[in-house]
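U., I forgot to send this yesterday:
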Amino acid sequence: MLEILAGVCIGVVLGTISGLIPGVHANTLAGILLGLQALLLTLLGPLALAGAMFAALITHTFVDAVPSTFLGIPDADTSLAVLPAHALCLEGKGEEAVRIAALGSAGAIILAVPLSVVCFLLLPQLQPYFDWWIGILLIAVVGYMVVTSDAPGWALGVFCVSGLLGTFALHYSYLSWHTVGGESAILMPLLSGLFGISILLIAARGKIPTQRFEGITLEDRKVVKCSVIGTAAGIAVGWLPGLSTASANAVLASVIGYEKDRRGYILATNAANTANAFIGLAALFALSRMRNGVMAALAELPPQSMSALMVVGVLAACAAYLITIFLGRYAPLLNGIDSMLLNRGVIAFVVILCIILTGPFGLVILILATATGLVPHIINLPAVYCMGSIMVPVMLYSFGILV
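Result:
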Protein backbone atom coordinates (compact mmCIF):
# COMPACT_ATOMS: atom_id res chain seq x y z
CA MET A 1 0.00 0.00 0.00
CA LEU A 2 2.89 2.37 0.73
CA GLU A 3 4.27 1.83 -2.78
CA ILE A 4 0.84 2.55 -4.27
CA LEU A 5 0.50 5.79 -2.30
CA ALA A 6 4.05 6.84 -3.18
CA GLY A 7 3.36 6.21 -6.86
CA VAL A 8 0.12 8.20 -6.68
CA CYS A 9 1.74 11.21 -4.99
CA ILE A 10 4.71 11.35 -7.35
CA GLY A 11 2.55 10.77 -10.43
CA VAL A 12 0.02 13.44 -9.48
CA VAL A 13 2.78 16.03 -9.07
CA LEU A 14 4.40 15.09 -12.38
CA GLY A 15 1.08 14.91 -14.22
CA THR A 16 0.10 18.35 -12.93
CA ILE A 17 3.38 19.79 -14.22
CA SER A 18 3.01 18.17 -17.65
CA GLY A 19 -0.64 19.15 -17.86
CA LEU A 20 0.10 22.81 -17.20
CA ILE A 21 3.02 23.10 -19.64
CA PRO A 22 1.81 22.96 -23.27
CA GLY A 23 3.84 20.62 -25.43
CA VAL A 24 4.98 18.45 -22.52
CA HIS A 25 3.12 15.14 -22.21
CA ALA A 26 3.07 12.42 -19.60
CA ASN A 27 4.80 10.25 -22.23
CA THR A 28 7.82 12.56 -21.97
CA LEU A 29 7.93 12.23 -18.19
CA ALA A 30 7.59 8.45 -18.45
CA GLY A 31 10.61 8.37 -20.74
CA ILE A 32 12.63 10.41 -18.23
CA LEU A 33 11.59 8.14 -15.35
CA LEU A 34 12.46 5.08 -17.43
CA GLY A 35 15.92 6.48 -18.04
CA LEU A 36 16.38 6.77 -14.27
CA GLN A 37 14.86 3.39 -13.47
CA ALA A 38 18.07 1.88 -12.05
CA LEU A 39 18.07 4.51 -9.31
CA LEU A 40 14.30 4.83 -8.89
CA LEU A 41 13.68 1.08 -8.62
CA THR A 42 16.04 1.01 -5.65
CA LEU A 43 14.53 4.09 -3.99
CA LEU A 44 10.85 3.54 -4.72
CA GLY A 45 10.32 -0.05 -5.77
CA PRO A 46 8.84 -1.33 -9.05
CA LEU A 47 5.19 -0.79 -8.15
CA ALA A 48 5.74 2.80 -7.03
CA LEU A 49 7.66 3.62 -10.21
CA ALA A 50 5.06 2.03 -12.47
CA GLY A 51 2.31 3.70 -10.46
CA ALA A 52 3.98 7.09 -10.80
CA MET A 53 4.00 6.74 -14.59
CA PHE A 54 0.35 5.72 -14.78
CA ALA A 55 -0.78 8.30 -12.20
CA ALA A 56 1.00 11.02 -14.19
CA LEU A 57 -0.88 9.96 -17.32
CA ILE A 58 -4.26 10.03 -15.57
CA THR A 59 -3.54 13.37 -13.91
CA HIS A 60 -2.45 14.87 -17.23
CA THR A 61 -5.82 14.00 -18.79
CA PHE A 62 -7.49 16.21 -16.17
CA VAL A 63 -5.11 19.15 -15.79
CA ASP A 64 -4.41 19.77 -19.49
CA ALA A 65 -7.88 21.34 -19.68
CA VAL A 66 -6.49 24.43 -17.94
CA PRO A 67 -4.00 25.68 -20.61
CA SER A 68 -6.33 24.47 -23.35
CA THR A 69 -9.14 26.65 -22.01
CA PHE A 70 -7.30 29.80 -21.02
CA LEU A 71 -4.48 29.86 -23.58
CA GLY A 72 -6.06 28.04 -26.51
CA ILE A 73 -3.06 25.73 -26.98
CA PRO A 74 -4.16 22.23 -28.00
CA ASP A 75 -2.92 18.98 -26.54
CA ALA A 76 -2.47 16.09 -28.97
CA ASP A 77 -5.27 14.14 -27.24
CA THR A 78 -7.91 16.88 -27.00
CA SER A 79 -7.12 19.21 -29.87
CA LEU A 80 -10.70 19.79 -31.03
CA ALA A 81 -11.96 20.37 -27.50
CA VAL A 82 -9.81 23.52 -27.35
CA LEU A 83 -12.14 25.35 -29.72
CA PRO A 84 -15.32 25.34 -27.60
CA ALA A 85 -13.39 25.58 -24.29
CA HIS A 86 -11.45 28.66 -25.35
CA ALA A 87 -14.62 30.16 -26.80
CA LEU A 88 -16.30 29.84 -23.40
CA CYS A 89 -13.27 31.52 -21.82
CA LEU A 90 -13.70 34.47 -24.18
CA GLU A 91 -17.31 34.70 -22.99
CA GLY A 92 -16.17 34.94 -19.37
CA LYS A 93 -16.96 31.28 -18.62
CA GLY A 94 -13.49 29.79 -18.52
CA GLU A 95 -13.89 28.27 -15.07
CA GLU A 96 -17.11 26.59 -16.17
CA ALA A 97 -15.29 25.06 -19.15
CA VAL A 98 -12.54 23.70 -16.87
CA ARG A 99 -15.10 22.27 -14.44
CA ILE A 100 -17.01 20.60 -17.28
CA ALA A 101 -13.78 19.05 -18.56
CA ALA A 102 -12.95 17.76 -15.08
CA LEU A 103 -16.48 16.42 -14.70
CA GLY A 104 -16.16 14.53 -17.99
CA SER A 105 -12.89 12.93 -16.93
CA ALA A 106 -14.32 12.05 -13.52
CA GLY A 107 -17.43 10.53 -15.08
CA ALA A 108 -15.26 8.38 -17.30
CA ILE A 109 -13.62 6.78 -14.25
CA ILE A 110 -16.93 5.26 -13.16
CA LEU A 111 -17.43 3.59 -16.54
CA ALA A 112 -13.91 3.06 -17.84
CA VAL A 113 -12.56 0.89 -15.03
CA PRO A 114 -15.20 -1.89 -15.25
CA LEU A 115 -15.28 -1.67 -19.06
CA SER A 116 -11.49 -2.04 -19.19
CA VAL A 117 -11.77 -5.24 -17.14
CA VAL A 118 -14.48 -6.55 -19.47
CA CYS A 119 -12.36 -5.79 -22.54
CA PHE A 120 -9.37 -7.46 -20.90
CA LEU A 121 -11.36 -10.66 -20.38
CA LEU A 122 -13.46 -10.89 -23.55
CA LEU A 123 -11.93 -9.04 -26.49
CA PRO A 124 -8.48 -10.56 -27.12
CA GLN A 125 -10.03 -13.45 -29.05
CA LEU A 126 -11.75 -11.00 -31.42
CA GLN A 127 -8.71 -8.81 -32.02
CA PRO A 128 -7.90 -10.04 -35.56
CA TYR A 129 -11.34 -8.88 -36.75
CA PHE A 130 -10.93 -5.47 -35.10
CA ASP A 131 -7.54 -4.92 -36.72
CA TRP A 132 -8.93 -5.45 -40.21
CA TRP A 133 -12.00 -3.21 -39.88
CA ILE A 134 -10.35 -0.06 -38.51
CA GLY A 135 -9.67 1.56 -41.89
CA ILE A 136 -13.18 0.73 -43.16
CA LEU A 137 -14.73 2.23 -40.02
CA LEU A 138 -12.79 5.48 -40.38
CA ILE A 139 -13.68 5.78 -44.06
CA ALA A 140 -17.35 5.43 -43.13
CA VAL A 141 -17.04 8.10 -40.44
CA VAL A 142 -15.23 10.49 -42.78
CA GLY A 143 -17.79 9.88 -45.52
CA TYR A 144 -20.61 10.72 -43.15
CA MET A 145 -18.86 13.89 -41.97
CA VAL A 146 -18.26 15.08 -45.53
CA VAL A 147 -21.74 14.27 -46.86
CA THR A 148 -23.46 16.05 -43.95
CA SER A 149 -21.29 19.15 -44.35
CA ASP A 150 -22.76 22.39 -45.67
CA ALA A 151 -19.95 22.46 -48.26
CA PRO A 152 -18.97 18.83 -49.05
CA GLY A 153 -16.40 19.83 -51.68
CA TRP A 154 -14.52 22.17 -49.36
CA ALA A 155 -14.85 19.70 -46.48
CA LEU A 156 -13.28 16.91 -48.52
CA GLY A 157 -10.56 19.26 -49.76
CA VAL A 158 -9.59 20.43 -46.26
CA PHE A 159 -9.65 16.86 -44.98
CA CYS A 160 -7.39 15.62 -47.78
CA VAL A 161 -4.92 18.51 -47.55
CA SER A 162 -4.61 18.19 -43.78
CA GLY A 163 -4.29 14.43 -44.25
CA LEU A 164 -1.40 14.88 -46.67
CA LEU A 165 0.26 17.28 -44.23
CA GLY A 166 -0.17 14.84 -41.33
CA THR A 167 1.17 11.95 -43.40
CA PHE A 168 4.16 14.03 -44.49
CA ALA A 169 4.89 15.18 -40.94
CA LEU A 170 4.72 11.69 -39.43
CA HIS A 171 6.60 9.99 -42.26
CA TYR A 172 9.50 12.42 -42.09
CA SER A 173 9.37 13.01 -38.33
CA TYR A 174 12.93 11.70 -38.07
CA LEU A 175 14.02 15.07 -39.49
CA SER A 176 13.00 16.82 -36.27
CA TRP A 177 15.35 17.24 -33.34
CA HIS A 178 13.61 14.85 -30.89
CA THR A 179 14.92 16.67 -27.84
CA VAL A 180 12.08 15.09 -25.82
CA GLY A 181 9.14 12.87 -26.67
CA GLY A 182 10.64 10.96 -29.63
CA GLU A 183 9.12 11.07 -33.08
CA SER A 184 5.63 11.70 -31.68
CA ALA A 185 6.83 15.20 -30.72
CA ILE A 186 6.04 16.31 -34.28
CA LEU A 187 2.35 16.22 -33.31
CA MET A 188 2.95 19.33 -31.22
CA PRO A 189 3.62 21.74 -34.14
CA LEU A 190 1.13 19.90 -36.36
CA LEU A 191 -1.85 20.24 -34.03
CA SER A 192 -0.78 23.60 -32.59
CA GLY A 193 -0.81 25.05 -36.08
CA LEU A 194 -4.10 23.48 -37.13
CA PHE A 195 -6.08 24.17 -33.95
CA GLY A 196 -4.06 26.69 -31.94
CA ILE A 197 -2.19 29.43 -33.76
CA SER A 198 -4.67 29.51 -36.65
CA ILE A 199 -7.40 30.34 -34.10
CA LEU A 200 -5.34 32.89 -32.20
CA LEU A 201 -4.42 34.78 -35.38
CA ILE A 202 -8.06 35.58 -36.15
CA ALA A 203 -9.28 35.86 -32.56
CA ALA A 204 -11.24 38.94 -31.59
CA ARG A 205 -9.28 41.89 -30.24
CA GLY A 206 -9.99 43.69 -27.01
CA LYS A 207 -9.77 42.77 -23.35
CA ILE A 208 -10.58 39.37 -21.95
CA PRO A 209 -14.02 39.60 -20.36
CA THR A 210 -14.54 39.25 -16.64
CA GLN A 211 -14.40 35.59 -15.68
CA ARG A 212 -17.34 34.54 -13.52
CA PHE A 213 -18.47 31.09 -12.48
CA GLU A 214 -22.25 30.86 -12.26
CA GLY A 215 -22.61 27.10 -12.24
CA ILE A 216 -22.46 24.39 -14.89
CA THR A 217 -25.31 24.83 -17.34
CA LEU A 218 -25.69 21.19 -18.26
CA GLU A 219 -28.68 19.03 -17.42
CA ASP A 220 -27.99 15.86 -15.45
CA ARG A 221 -29.31 13.80 -18.33
CA LYS A 222 -26.89 15.50 -20.73
CA VAL A 223 -23.99 14.90 -18.33
CA VAL A 224 -24.76 11.19 -18.20
CA LYS A 225 -25.32 10.93 -21.94
CA CYS A 226 -22.12 12.71 -22.94
CA SER A 227 -20.09 10.83 -20.32
CA VAL A 228 -21.30 7.51 -21.70
CA ILE A 229 -20.70 8.51 -25.33
CA GLY A 230 -17.28 9.94 -24.60
CA THR A 231 -16.19 6.96 -22.51
CA ALA A 232 -17.38 4.53 -25.19
CA ALA A 233 -15.42 6.45 -27.83
CA GLY A 234 -12.31 6.50 -25.64
CA ILE A 235 -12.58 2.77 -24.94
CA ALA A 236 -13.02 1.99 -28.65
CA VAL A 237 -10.06 4.00 -29.94
CA GLY A 238 -7.93 2.94 -26.98
CA TRP A 239 -8.39 -0.74 -27.72
CA LEU A 240 -8.13 -0.60 -31.50
CA PRO A 241 -4.58 -0.34 -32.87
CA GLY A 242 -3.35 2.83 -34.51
CA LEU A 243 -6.15 5.03 -33.16
CA SER A 244 -5.89 7.77 -30.54
CA THR A 245 -8.11 10.11 -28.59
CA ALA A 246 -7.72 12.59 -31.44
CA SER A 247 -9.57 10.09 -33.64
CA ALA A 248 -12.30 9.86 -30.99
CA ASN A 249 -12.60 13.66 -31.04
CA ALA A 250 -13.40 13.59 -34.74
CA VAL A 251 -15.99 10.86 -34.29
CA LEU A 252 -17.59 12.70 -31.36
CA ALA A 253 -17.75 15.88 -33.44
CA SER A 254 -20.02 14.08 -35.91
CA VAL A 255 -22.22 12.76 -33.08
CA ILE A 256 -22.40 15.73 -30.70
CA GLY A 257 -21.11 18.71 -32.66
CA TYR A 258 -18.65 21.01 -30.93
CA GLU A 259 -20.27 24.16 -32.36
CA LYS A 260 -23.89 23.38 -31.49
CA ASP A 261 -23.29 21.77 -28.11
CA ARG A 262 -19.97 23.13 -26.83
CA ARG A 263 -20.41 22.05 -23.22
CA GLY A 264 -21.49 18.55 -24.11
CA TYR A 265 -18.58 18.19 -26.50
CA ILE A 266 -16.03 19.36 -23.91
CA LEU A 267 -17.40 16.85 -21.42
CA ALA A 268 -17.43 13.98 -23.93
CA THR A 269 -13.93 14.57 -25.29
CA ASN A 270 -12.38 14.74 -21.83
CA ALA A 271 -14.23 11.58 -20.84
CA ALA A 272 -12.78 9.93 -23.93
CA ASN A 273 -9.27 11.12 -23.07
CA THR A 274 -9.35 9.66 -19.56
CA ALA A 275 -11.08 6.44 -20.63
CA ASN A 276 -8.41 6.00 -23.30
CA ALA A 277 -5.71 5.97 -20.61
CA PHE A 278 -7.42 3.16 -18.67
CA ILE A 279 -8.16 0.98 -21.68
CA GLY A 280 -4.56 1.43 -22.80
CA LEU A 281 -3.49 -0.30 -19.59
CA ALA A 282 -5.89 -3.18 -20.26
CA ALA A 283 -4.59 -3.51 -23.83
CA LEU A 284 -1.04 -3.69 -22.51
CA PHE A 285 -1.83 -6.57 -20.17
CA ALA A 286 -4.21 -8.40 -22.52
CA LEU A 287 -2.46 -7.98 -25.89
CA SER A 288 1.05 -6.75 -24.98
CA ARG A 289 0.31 -3.76 -27.22
CA MET A 290 1.53 -0.31 -26.21
CA ARG A 291 -0.96 2.44 -27.06
CA ASN A 292 1.17 5.36 -25.85
CA GLY A 293 4.57 6.23 -24.47
CA VAL A 294 3.57 5.55 -20.87
CA MET A 295 2.51 1.99 -21.76
CA ALA A 296 5.78 1.48 -23.64
CA ALA A 297 7.67 2.58 -20.53
CA LEU A 298 5.61 0.28 -18.30
CA ALA A 299 6.45 -2.64 -20.58
CA GLU A 300 10.14 -2.08 -19.80
CA LEU A 301 9.64 -2.34 -16.03
CA PRO A 302 9.27 -5.52 -13.95
CA PRO A 303 5.73 -6.93 -14.41
CA GLN A 304 3.12 -5.45 -12.09
CA SER A 305 -0.47 -6.22 -11.18
CA MET A 306 -3.07 -4.64 -13.46
CA SER A 307 -5.48 -4.33 -10.53
CA ALA A 308 -2.89 -2.46 -8.45
CA LEU A 309 -2.26 0.02 -11.28
CA MET A 310 -6.02 0.47 -11.71
CA VAL A 311 -6.23 1.43 -8.02
CA VAL A 312 -3.39 3.90 -8.58
CA GLY A 313 -5.27 5.39 -11.53
CA VAL A 314 -8.50 5.83 -9.57
CA LEU A 315 -6.72 7.47 -6.62
CA ALA A 316 -4.80 9.76 -8.99
CA ALA A 317 -8.05 10.72 -10.73
CA CYS A 318 -9.61 11.78 -7.41
CA ALA A 319 -6.65 14.00 -6.64
CA ALA A 320 -6.45 15.34 -10.19
CA TYR A 321 -10.13 16.31 -10.14
CA LEU A 322 -9.62 18.45 -7.03
CA ILE A 323 -6.45 20.01 -8.44
CA THR A 324 -8.17 20.91 -11.72
CA ILE A 325 -11.10 22.54 -9.92
CA PHE A 326 -8.66 24.47 -7.73
CA LEU A 327 -6.68 25.74 -10.73
CA GLY A 328 -9.87 26.74 -12.54
CA ARG A 329 -10.70 29.15 -9.71
CA TYR A 330 -7.82 31.34 -10.80
CA ALA A 331 -9.68 32.31 -13.99
CA PRO A 332 -10.40 35.85 -12.65
CA LEU A 333 -6.67 36.60 -12.92
CA LEU A 334 -7.28 37.00 -16.65
CA ASN A 335 -9.84 39.77 -16.17
CA GLY A 336 -9.05 42.81 -18.29
CA ILE A 337 -5.92 41.42 -19.95
CA ASP A 338 -5.45 42.58 -23.54
CA SER A 339 -6.39 39.52 -25.60
CA MET A 340 -4.18 40.56 -28.54
CA LEU A 341 -1.16 40.83 -26.25
CA LEU A 342 -1.98 37.48 -24.65
CA ASN A 343 -2.48 35.81 -28.04
CA ARG A 344 0.83 37.15 -29.32
CA GLY A 345 2.55 35.92 -26.19
CA VAL A 346 1.03 32.46 -26.58
CA ILE A 347 1.99 32.31 -30.27
CA ALA A 348 5.57 33.31 -29.44
CA PHE A 349 5.69 30.67 -26.71
CA VAL A 350 4.44 27.96 -29.08
CA VAL A 351 6.95 28.93 -31.78
CA ILE A 352 9.86 28.88 -29.32
CA LEU A 353 8.70 25.59 -27.81
CA CYS A 354 8.31 24.13 -31.30
CA ILE A 355 11.89 25.06 -32.19
CA ILE A 356 13.20 23.62 -28.92
CA LEU A 357 11.30 20.34 -29.26
CA THR A 358 11.43 19.69 -33.00
CA GLY A 359 13.88 22.11 -34.62
CA PRO A 360 13.62 23.65 -38.11
CA PHE A 361 11.53 20.77 -39.50
CA GLY A 362 8.95 21.27 -36.77
CA LEU A 363 8.86 24.99 -37.52
CA VAL A 364 8.11 24.24 -41.18
CA ILE A 365 5.30 21.90 -40.12
CA LEU A 366 3.95 24.58 -37.77
CA ILE A 367 3.83 27.16 -40.59
CA LEU A 368 2.16 24.74 -43.03
CA ALA A 369 -0.32 23.60 -40.39
CA THR A 370 -1.22 27.18 -39.49
CA ALA A 371 -1.88 28.02 -43.14
CA THR A 372 -4.04 24.91 -43.50
CA GLY A 373 -5.88 25.64 -40.26
CA LEU A 374 -6.82 29.13 -41.44
CA VAL A 375 -8.75 27.80 -44.45
CA PRO A 376 -11.83 26.52 -42.56
CA HIS A 377 -12.23 29.88 -40.81
CA ILE A 378 -11.92 31.80 -44.07
CA ILE A 379 -14.64 29.73 -45.77
CA ASN A 380 -16.74 29.32 -42.60
CA LEU A 381 -16.21 25.56 -42.32
CA PRO A 382 -15.88 23.61 -39.04
CA ALA A 383 -12.28 22.90 -38.12
CA VAL A 384 -13.08 19.23 -37.50
CA TYR A 385 -12.10 18.43 -41.10
CA CYS A 386 -8.51 19.29 -40.21
CA MET A 387 -8.53 16.04 -38.21
CA GLY A 388 -7.58 14.42 -41.51
CA SER A 389 -4.04 15.11 -40.27
CA ILE A 390 -4.51 12.24 -37.81
CA MET A 391 -7.16 10.09 -39.48
CA VAL A 392 -5.51 9.72 -42.90
CA PRO A 393 -2.23 8.34 -41.48
CA VAL A 394 -4.23 5.94 -39.31
CA MET A 395 -6.23 4.72 -42.31
CA LEU A 396 -3.06 4.20 -44.32
CA TYR A 397 -1.51 2.30 -41.42
CA SER A 398 -4.55 0.07 -41.03
CA PHE A 399 -4.40 -0.90 -44.70
CA GLY A 400 -0.74 -1.85 -44.41
CA ILE A 401 0.64 1.31 -46.01
CA LEU A 402 3.29 2.39 -43.54
CA VAL A 403 3.74 6.15 -43.07
